[in-house]
């Protein structure tokens, strides 16, 4: 191999340093192999820190009726039974051990009066299940994993972007990328690769996701032949900031509602009581302190309607805004301050339970949430779809290529329950690292030719080498156009005509992106970085749109205004995106695998 590029060799290469990537790197290293970790930003900057409410695990510390069977059933119901049931089973069974493991590594969780890990209510979960650290759970997870992983001898490459995966025949052989500071190319040879790159939020205009979330892992896997699954299911979190404009989309944790926050329209009406679906028997709408009452077995429980699943709450907020009952800046009001009439020292209670939210609104919007309501609205938050993986090993359809976390599909089905993302990272980050290490021990390094590397370097430099022609658009303008089209045409409420229009617009943007010019040189060049990101953003946008057109029903996070109901026939398959022989994108209906009888019985019992 030519020495013109810096080359680094590992047994396992992990791309992404959020919860899933760190947990995978720790586990692979524990397997006795050499591990490299590449991340697009700085360590500690991963989107995991934005997961504030807690990590879902059926530890039963607050309600001893909770167990893995209930968690499994809740996850399957939330996903509308399109989930990979094997992943849902592993997740429910293993999450408590992963949380206790995190605690053993130094995570400091909130505690019950008798010293156990405290758990809170969250949308779609039958019992209080989210282990938390105030509203900074993801930050504590990243801190703990980094502190634990730093002693494992893992080589870390921060501020590096991977632009393509490298193959030797059918199997993975490494990755090609560059450092973002100076633009120097890097070759990472590896026996196996774990993708843990997060989500696709930057394909939309309003998003809780930071700049890194451009669908890199999804697109990298798709480009080398790994199928994607469930890409039509994009979760719009009900509560993001809407004012001031500079912070629009920033997440407002579901923990606010878990601690008693209620949603009101401009008339002060608590509108969520108008649309409680028949999920529970014997339900009645009670007063706003108590929520609605339902029975579970022979016991009675109460639950606020604000803690229905995220897709449902987001659509209710969207309805209020479009009906002219929204807040002054195009959202609704989220009110936690109302508890001041019920709870002594409520301000201190709110600051203790929701410290990040208190400071976020105080600093960014000059609002004291202990005194007045917040303005919130839906924001693009999470994609349930991702790389199709084996439920046990997390290996994709390309030998040696694994995926975990948000860039892997299967666990969440049509909709993710809040808090399941953090336990997903821990459970399947561990599994991906474990099996990637096992795979690496059984194979030799793949061969990568000089010509292959030279070709990838040439493609990466094209935006810098092109000469600008009249009418050509810059990469930032193209990205903004894509975000606008996806937000307006493939957003919370979808129709056939608008999505067909979106496909036409995406085709136009492909052409524009192929001609875009990044001015300047390779050092500190944000335009060049964006030009390279465009290919990934366009790939995931097309995958989302094509899958959403094919699913002619409303299910989970996918809502069709022209097909507003579920279709039983559509509940029997997942949609898989594959790269065709001609390079075009194919959408395939993959029949669901029959659920194992003992798991079917659990679902029936929990219903």
Cα gyration radius (Å): 23 Å
End-to-end distance = 59 Å
Distinct helical segment count: 15
Determine the structural class based on helices, strands and strand pairing.
Answer: alpha+beta
Q: Got a strand count?
A: 22
- Give the overall pLDDT as a whole number: 92
Largest sheet: 7 strands, mixed
What is the helix content? 25-40%
> What is the molecular shape?
globular
Report the uncertain regions: 280-301
Name the beta content range: 15-25%
Give an overview in words:
With 607 residues, this protein is α+β, with helices and mostly antiparallel strands. The chain contains 15 helices and 22 strands. The chain has helices at residues 19-30, 68-78, 85-104, 137-149, 216-223, 255-258, 310-322, 346-353, 355-365, 420-441, 450-465, 475-489, 496-515, 526-550, 597-606; strands at residues 6-15, 35-38, 55-56, 119-120, 130-131, 155-157, 160-168, 171-179, 185-195, 228-229, 234-241, 262-264, 284-285, 292-296, 299-303, 332-335, 374-383, 386-388, 401-403, 408-409, 573-579, 585-591. Strands 1, 2, 6, 7, 8, 9 and 19 form a 7-stranded mixed sheet that branches. Strands 20-18-10-21-22 form a 5-stranded mixed sheet, covered by helices on one side. A 4-stranded antiparallel sheet has the order 11-17-16-12, with helices on one face. β14 and β15 (299-303) form a beta hairpin. The longest helix has 25 residues, at 526-550. The radius of gyration is 23 Å and the shape is globular. The relative contact order is 0.17. The model is unreliable at 280-301 (pLDDT under 50).
């Amino acid at each position: 191999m030519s020495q013109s590029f810096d080359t680094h060799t590992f047994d396992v290469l992990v791309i992404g340093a959020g919860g899933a990537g760190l947990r995978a790197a720790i586990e692979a290293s524990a397997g006795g192999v050499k591990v490299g970790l590449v991340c697009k930003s700085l360590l500690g900057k991963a989107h995991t820190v934005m997961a504030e409410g807690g990590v879902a695990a059926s530890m039963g510390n607050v309600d001893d009726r909770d167990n893995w069977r209930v968690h499994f059933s809740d996850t399957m119901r939330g996903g509308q039974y399109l989930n990979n049931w094997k992943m849902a089973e592993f997740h429910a069974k293993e999450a408590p051990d992963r949380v206790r493991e995190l605690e053993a590594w130094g995570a400091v969780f909130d505690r019950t009066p008798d010293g156990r890990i405290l758990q809170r209510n969250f949308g779609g979960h039958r019992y209080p299940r989210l282990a938390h650290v105030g509203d900074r759970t993801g930050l504590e997870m990243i801190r703990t994993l980094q502190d634990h992983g730093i002693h494992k001898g893992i080589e870390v490459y921060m501020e590096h972007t991977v632009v393509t995966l490298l193959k030797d025949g059918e199997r993975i052989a490494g990755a090609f990328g560059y450092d973002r500071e100076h633009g120097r190319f890097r070759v990472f040879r590896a026996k196996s690769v774990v993708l843990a790159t997060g989500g696709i939020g930057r394909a939309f205009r309003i998003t809780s996701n930071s700049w890194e979330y451009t669908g890199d892992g999804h697109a990298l896997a798709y480009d080398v032949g790994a199928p994607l699954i469930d890409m039509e299911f994009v979760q719009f979190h009900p509560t993001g900031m809407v004012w001031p404009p500079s912070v629009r989309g920033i997440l407002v944790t579901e923990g606010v509602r878990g601690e008693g926050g209620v949603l009101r329209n401009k008339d002060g009406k608590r509108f969520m009581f108008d649309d409680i679906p028949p999920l529970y028997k014997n339900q009645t709408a009670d007063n706003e302190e108590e929520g609605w009452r339902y029975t579970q077995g022979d016991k009675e429980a109460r639950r606020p309607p604000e803690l229905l699943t995220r897709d449902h709450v987001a659509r209710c907020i969207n309805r209020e805004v479009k009906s002219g009952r929204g807040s002054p800046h195009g959202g609704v009001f989220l009110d936690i301050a109302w508890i001041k009439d019920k709870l002594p020292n409520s301000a201190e209670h709110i600051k203790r339970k929701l410290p990040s939210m208190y400071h976020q609104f105080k600093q960014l919007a000059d609002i004291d949430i202990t005194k007045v309501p917040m303005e919130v609205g839906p924001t693009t938050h999470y994609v349930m779809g991702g790389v199709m993986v084996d439920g046990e090993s997390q290996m994709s359809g390309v030998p040696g290529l694994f995926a975990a976390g948000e860039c892997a599909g299967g666990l969440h089905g049509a909709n993710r329950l809040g808090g399941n993302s953090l336990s997903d990272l821990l459970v399947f980050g561990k599994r991906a690292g474990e099996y990637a290490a096992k795979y690496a021990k059984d194979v030799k390094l793949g061969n990568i030719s000089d010509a292959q590397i030279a070709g990838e370097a040439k493609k990466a430099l094209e935006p810098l080498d092109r000469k600008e022609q009249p009418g050509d658009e810059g990469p930032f303008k193209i990205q903004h156009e894509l975000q606008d089209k996806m937000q307006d045409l493939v957003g919370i409420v979808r129709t056939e005509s608008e999505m067909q229009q979106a496909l036409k617009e995406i085709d136009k943007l492909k052409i524009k992106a192929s001609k875009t010019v990044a001015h300047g040189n390779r050092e500190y060049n944000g335009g060049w970085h964006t030009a390279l990101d465009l290919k990934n953003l366009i790939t995931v946008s097309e995958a989302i749109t094509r899958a959403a057109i094919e699913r002619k029903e409303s299910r989970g996070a996918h809502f069709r205004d022209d097909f507003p109901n579920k279709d039983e026939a559509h509940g029997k398959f997942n949609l898989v995106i594959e790269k065709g022989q001609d390079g075009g994108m194919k959408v395939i209906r993959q029949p669901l695998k029959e659920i194992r009888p003992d798991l079917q019985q659990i679902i029936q019992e929990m219903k």
